[in-house]
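#struct-pred
JK: can someone run the complex with heme C? inputs below
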Amino acid sequence: MKKIAIPAFGFIFISILLLGMNSQQPGKAGDAALGTRKYDDFQTPQFCGTSCHTDIYQQWKQAMMSQAYTHHWDEIEYFKLAVPHAEKDQMVAGVKAGCNGCHAPIAFLAGDVPPPLPSANSRANESVSCEVCHTITGFAGDTPYNFNWISEPGKTKYGPRVGKNSPEHDLVKSEFLGKAEFCGTCHNEKSPYGAWVKSTHLEWKEGPYAAQGVKCHDCHMTYAEGKTAAMGNIYPDARQHLFHGAHDPGKVRGTIELRIHPDIREAEPGEKIKFTIALFNQKTGHKFPTGSVEDRIVWMQVEAVDAKGKTYHLPVDKKGFPGEEYTIGADALAYQDMGIALGDPNFPGVQRDGVPIGDRIFRMAYFDPQGRMTIQQWNTKSFGVDYRIGPRETKLETCTFTLPFDIAPGPLKVTAVLNYQKLIKPVADFLGVPAEEAEIIQVNDHSTAITVLQ
Ligand code: HEC
Ligand code: HEC
Ligand code: HEC
Ligand code: HEC
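RT: done, structure tokens with the ligand placed:
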């Protein structure tokens, strides 16, 4: 090995220069922040949570924020699909580092990409830690997206209250942390093809809640009387670090209210009855589903049960809008672009939906540059029709049922159920994602009855 001689004064000069850069230069944002910090610039969540912020720590521990890097599906998608894809396709090469800008921000800032596997138990596993958020001072540009937050680690922590009430750090009151734009820096994402593949904050911004001043925090970091530190004051509005969303069935349940009614209450075999279902989004501040829209599937299943217990599946009536075929359960293959990462260019794909054929799906399809449906948001160039349910929106669906001639006379009970899956089941099965990620969560249901005449 050759030794590189650096004159002593040169070394000192470079050191001072680097030091100056670290402490005086404002923090960089987005892609430009890669490798601009060290792991040691940030405290561990255990440090924050062991003796002082014990309660907040326990809340954070069981929220997805603490698992953004280690969660099974994140690990599988990053290491099995994104990293190999980034190595084969120059267009998406940036995601190898970029995924970590939101999922393992400290590893990203330390330039440790790809980070070690979660099993190595490195500091990347801290995911979106206390110090990620509480060192953020603002964001670059006009629109928050693609981790364009600015982190300024150090003794000063940013939060909702002012004061020097802790021996450990100085507190600076940050208006920014209390704003929806703060969340938007990670909850809006643009793909390398310029498509808005995540737009939770943008959806919120154009919806009714933003207009009324109801922000993300009001539903995901709610306020309660309590302490924010073990030895601290009791506040009437201590911020709860719940961050509950798709991974909390209780949060998802009841998001949509369903009401089903028939056009006539009595009919003979051979007659047609039209059932109308109203689906009202009473709970989300953004569309439903939002965020990882490429993975999620929400579908409505309508069934009739006659007096003898025989069940009939009622497919939804088509409305005839462009792109509707992606909003109705079908026997079709999709997601062929997973073959790029898996080294199988002729990969035929897997089932697109995995839900009953003919059921209405509330979704927005993501398309790869070849126009095929994809769950790889980084490989998304365009979208299908946006048929999700907006905040406070009501969608009406109909199912027309021609009573079969052998249907049992008497009461006919008709039930509409709205189901939700975090990850399309055929994709979960194919990639070996644990079953919990594709569990069916029932959002809501409602029944009505008619009488079948003799
Ligand atoms: C530094 C980036 C970052 C910031 C800032 C951020 N988040 Fe997140 N958030 C994430 C990531 C990454 C996940 C996904 C974790 C996973 O499932 O892998 C997530 C997950 C969530 C979830 C859980 C979703 C689920 O699937 O269960 C909620 C709710 C949430 N964030 C709300 C917020 C709110 C509200 C704010 C602002 C107060 C915010 N986030 C700020 C990165 C961020
Ligand atoms: C995803 C970002 C995020 C993460 C991760 C996060 N916080 Fe917070 N924290 C916030 C926001 C946002 C607020 C409230 C800001 C506001 O309302 O103006 C807050 C508020 C606080 C407060 C003040 C509460 C009050 O009501 O005075 C403390 C203390 C705190 N966080 C500690 C922690 C600790 C400790 C952790 C890690 C275990 C943590 N935070 C993780 C975003 C985060
Ligand atoms: C009026 C209450 C409300 C507001 C305001 C709100 N949310 Fe939600 N959010 C919900 C509910 C309810 C759910 C659960 C249903 C769902 O998954 O969409 C949810 C789900 C989520 C999820 C998981 C979505 C998924 O399908 O994976 C994320 C992420 C999220 N919210 C982030 C945000 C962010 C960021 C903001 C602000 C820009 C915000 N929310 C504003 C109520 C709200
Ligand atoms: C701009 C920030 C951002 C970037 C960049 C980003 N993500 Fe995410 N990711 C999020 C947020 C926020 C969520 C949670 C959204 C939700 O719950 O709906 C999420 C959710 C996910 C999920 C679903 C987690 C679950 O359990 O449902 C996976 C998997 C994932 N991301 C992988 C990746 C990969 C791989 C990359 C890089 C190609 C990437 N992400 C890039 C912010 C980001």
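RT: quick notes.
Residues 1-24 have pLDDT under 50 and may be disordered.
Residues 103 and 195 are 20 Å apart (CA to CA).
JK: thanks, will look after standup
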